[in-house]
Amino acid sequence: MSGENAGEIIIDYEKMGHKIQVYKVEKKVEVVKDGAIIARTDKALLLYEDGHNPVYYIPKKEIPEDFLQPTDRKTTCPYKGKASYYDLKTGKETSRDSVWQYLDSNEEFSEIRDYVAFYPNSIDHINIV
Q1: Residue 90 and residue 38 in contact, taking contact as beta carbons nearer than 8 Å
Q2: What sign does the CA torsion over 28, 126, 49, 4 have?
């Protein structure tokens, strides 16, 4: 299930036939929006979940505060827990509710609490360097 950039597995979860695995990423990860790098980290995680595309999670503390504006949106995943959302603000535009964080995660997913993830259509791309 792991990809070429995935290293050590830190979460290996299965409940009622639904599998989620989270890996440390062995390379640097850059998140690019409007042609600018808004996040660069060597501490990214890669989450694989049945029925979904893989998602990179970036430590929130490594993203300049100017880019993320908290919103009132909340959702609940029966596996990971409660997610809070942020607008992604760049000089050119604001992508509404396009970044999420499991601030109130289930205990099994405590390793991702301090990380955020981006909807693919809200960023230009992710570079693996």
Answers
A1: yes
A2: negative
| Spatial contact of 24 and 7, defined as CB atoms under 8 Å apart | yes
Cα 71 from chain centroid (whole Å): 17
Residues 6+ apart with CB under 8 A from 32: 38, 123, 124, 125, 126, 127
* Verdict on whether the full-model pTM lies above 0.90: yes
Over residues 40-72, the pLDDT tens digits come to 999 999 999 999 999 999 999 999 999 999 999
What is the CA angle 19-68-113, rounded to 5? 35
CATH topology (fold) of 6-128: 2.170.150
Q: How many CB atoms neighbour CB 29 within 10 A?
A: 22
- Per-domain residue ranges for the chain? 6-128
pLDDT at 119 over 50: yes
Bridge partner list, 59 = 115
- Enumerate residues 6+ apart whose C-beta is below 8 A from 118: 31, 56, 58, 88, 98, 99, 126
3-state secondary structure of 121: helix
